Amino acid sequence: AYKRFSELLPKEERENACSARVPKSQILTLPELQANPFQHRICRVFSTSDNGDDSMSFEDFLDMLSVFSNSATSDIKSHYAFRIFDFDDDGALDRKDLEKLVNCLTGQGKESRLSNAEMEQLIQNILEESDIDKDGTINLSEFQHVVSRSPDFTRYGGLQR
């Protein structure tokens, strides 16, 4: 992990990789993130940068790799997946978050975009299935409940390299 992290830094910074921050643009060159539709959210969630540039320290990088690893528990994976899907960082998946989530998964092109009616029906179905307290949003425990009923989440979906 240290080798991979330091290789993302300019040569002159590699000796001090433990105290350096890798810019988001370099993190996005990782093969695991290049095709991931949530690449920007992943950087945002794992970055501890104070200035909002989504750069990563070595510790941030390790946290990200550990969540993506096969040995991470379903609870850890679902916790971070929830944070990644919570686009407005308000602690709940609301209709806007779900719409962004669906758009990320289906692609942004006109040919792959759902119609307004299809999007509304899909969001309604997601909420009916997941919103246990019927408040119109999905909180972390509701999300984890749904994930626990889906054993393929950690194997094929969710967060995996």
TrEMBL record:
It comes from the Eukaryota. PROSITE patterns: EF_HAND_1, EF_HAND_2. GO terms for molecular function: calcium ion binding; magnesium ion binding. Transmembrane segments: none annotated. One of its GO terms (biological process) is integrin-mediated signaling pathway. Gene3D superfamilies: EF-hand. This is Calcium and integrin-binding protein 1. The lineage of its organism: Eukaryota, Metazoa, Chordata, Craniata, Vertebrata. The gene is CIB1.
